[in-house]
Amino acid sequence: MSSNDDDILDFDFFEDDATRESGVGSGGARDTAGAEPSRGGGGGGRPRGPSLRAPHGLAPILRLVGFVAFAILIIVLLIVWGQGCSSDKKRSSYGDAMTELGTNGASSAKIGSDLAELLTTPGLKQAELETKLGGLIDRQRQGLESAQALDVPGPLRPATDHGAEALQLRVSGMQGLLDTFVATKGDDSDNATAAGEKLAAQAQQLEASDVVWRVLFQVPAQATLEDEGVGDLKAPSSVFVETAELYSTRSMTQIWLRIHGASTGGTPSGVHGTGLEKVLVQPGGAQLSPDTETTIKASTNLAFEVFVKNTGENQEVGIEVTLTIPKGTAPIVKKQTIDLLDIGVTKAVTFKDFPDPPFGEKTSVQVSVKPVQGETNTGNNSAEYPVIFSLE
Question: Is residue 230 a contact partner of residue 156, using CB atoms and an 8 Å limit?
Answer without folding.
Answer: no
